[in-house]
Amino acid sequence: MKVLVIGGGGREHALAWKIKQSPRVDEVFVAPGNAGTALDAVNVSIGANDIAELVKFAKTENIGLTVVGPEAPLALGIVDAFESEKLRVFGPTQVAAQLESSKAFCKNLLRQADVPTADFQVFRDPDDAMRFIKGRFPGERDRCPVVVKADGLAAGKGVIVCKRRNDALEAIDRISRRKEFGAAGMQMLIEERLDGQEASVLAITDGRTILPLPAAQDHKPAFDGDTGPNTGGMGAYSPTPIVDDALMAWIEEHVLVPTVHTMKRNRKPFRGVLYAGLMLTPQAGPKVLEYNCRFGDPECQPLLMRLKSDIMDILEGTVDQTLDQIDTPQWDPRPGICVVMASQGYPGDYEKGRPITGIDAADALEDVKVFHAGTRLDGDTIVNDGGRVLGVTALGDTISKAKLNAYTAVQKIRWAGAWCRKDISDKALQYLADQAKVL
């Protein structure tokens, strides 16, 4: 079988790498891909949002399965376009993808499904939003524990966490007046800020059967200690000890199942990856921060490093609505950690085209795989071509060992302006240490 993976980031490199391991797969194409997918698959120079050309390519090449990586083509209806041409495709339809493409749609569905989430208000007019903040927090120096979100897709950057009233007013101005996030800010949400540890729970569903994957923890803020601006994710690890078997069962019962059932009842059946971003609040338990409708990036990288089963069983079972018939996926018991190496300036402006060295040396280490995100080939030289450039991913017998393996590999890679967080997975180590004290 020929498989087409759509996208050009670290998630798509990990998917192509894992799909290629299936004995049922003859050839893997990635559109548009990056320098890493050019090594592990065949790149196709078609943009991820060029739906007409992608459909044409899939028909011409007799592609047996297309896997959609990023959120933008899902929001544009790529699955609907492929299905209308009788092409097999993994991912939710356009109406189902609103769980990610519209935060207001998501929050209203959570309310309808009685899934725990933060209180919220939706605004179109910035003046109304500012009046709401000033009325709720009348003093200029008042604490203002809210989160202001652009409603639409903003590459993971349209969420602004606020501490003071002026922070919230500035966030409203950035989103709705200055249009920093473009059309994503046509509508905005203001919701209560939740405190606690964040966790990512990804599940695969064919609309009837739900297959939860091991929980992961992402690191969104740019700098160590969860400081700095939000990014698309600076690293992740899986499994996370903060989600044990009992909590996972609770999340499945109270979050995943009611969401899938409500989508089906609303005639918007969901098939694909249902990714719940959760806040584990100390007082009220888990609450859903948001849903994504695709594999998380960088959570995808350690998850797929740990997956021992044939990923095609999961992907085809979802498309064919036979997930209840596949064998239970097997996972490497060792934890996996992904450290994102980024370009200087990210998540702001950064320079491209800087040569990268040391990737082969890092890849040669045991239990390490370097997944490319923002890279391209300049002749025979790999250069940076994005903000998040590489996802250095490693396994280890313990979280500490996996971290050591990942950062040992990071130290072998160089380009001008390269940087990364140094504390990926430290939350897990601290949690385990705290639990040991309790015991």
UniProtKB/TrEMBL annotation:
Similarity comment text for this entry: Belongs to the GARS family.
E.C. code: 6.3.4.13
Pathway entry: Purine metabolism; IMP biosynthesis via de novo pathway; N(1)-(5-phospho-D-ribosyl)glycinamide from 5-phospho-alpha-D-ribose 1-diphosphate: step 2/2
Organism: Aureliella helgolandensis
UniProt name for this protein: Phosphoribosylamine--glycine ligase
A molecular function GO annotation: ATP binding
Keyword Lipid metabolism appears in the UniProt entry: no
Stretches assigned to the ATP-grasp domain: 107-320
Co-factor(s): Mn(2+); Mg(2+)
Alphabetized InterPro entries for the sequence: ATP-grasp, ATP_grasp_subdomain_1, PreATP-grasp_dom_sf, PRibGlycinamid_synth_ATP-grasp, PRibGlycinamide_synth, PRibGlycinamide_synth_C-dom, PRibGlycinamide_synth_C_sf, PRibGlycinamide_synth_CS
Entries under SMART domains matching the protein: GARS_A, GARS_C
Reactions this protein catalyses: 5-phospho-beta-D-ribosylamine + glycine + ATP = N(1)-(5-phospho-beta-D-ribosyl)glycinamide + ADP + phosphate + H(+)
Keywords carried by this UniProt record: ATP-binding, Ligase, Manganese, Metal-binding, Nucleotide-binding, Purine biosynthesis
An annotated GO BP: 'de novo' IMP biosynthetic process
